[in-house]
Amino acid sequence: MDRIARLSRVLRLCFAIALATLIVLSSFVIAITYQEAGRWAAVSVAAEVILQGALLFQGERLLALYQRGVLFESANARRFRTIALLVVAAAVLPRVRGPAGSLEVTFQVDFNAIVVGLFMLILSWVMFEAAKAADEQRLTV
Fold first, then answer.
1. CA–CA separation, 23 vs 68, rounded Å?
2. Which of 1, 66, 69, 131 has the fewest CB atoms nearer than 10 Å to its CB?
3. What are the extents of the domains in the chain?
4. Distance (Å, rounded) from C-alpha 61 to C-alpha 15?
5. What are the tens digits of pLDDT across the range 68-104?
6. Looking at the chain, which runs of residues are DSSP E strands?
């Protein structure tokens, strides 16, 4: 348990730094994309930034639960399910690609990310079942 708490603390710090960096840099990236490729490209970049930010935030919150020793609770399963759905959403999101001056919006489905996201979704269901079992065990005298 100590090992989980220590690693969670370090990873939470990394996630927080990454989220702060994403917030600061994203406004510049969106502005440049709007100037070079137009409104829809900027919207696509903004959607990608929002998804990345949501992934980092949900991951940081899940690690906060682990750091406090909360392992088999429904809150963990909900966070994990949300992360899984965000991974799937990111896999089908249109992306802005190309060198400066010729950016374009492309649509590619990342099947590997979809598989990982669906696998994480199944794991979240397993975590929900573990939370139920842990609740039942706590109520057993």
1. 26
2. 1
3. 2-139
4. 10
5. 999 889 999 999 999 999 999 999 887 777 666 676 7
6. 95-97, 104-106
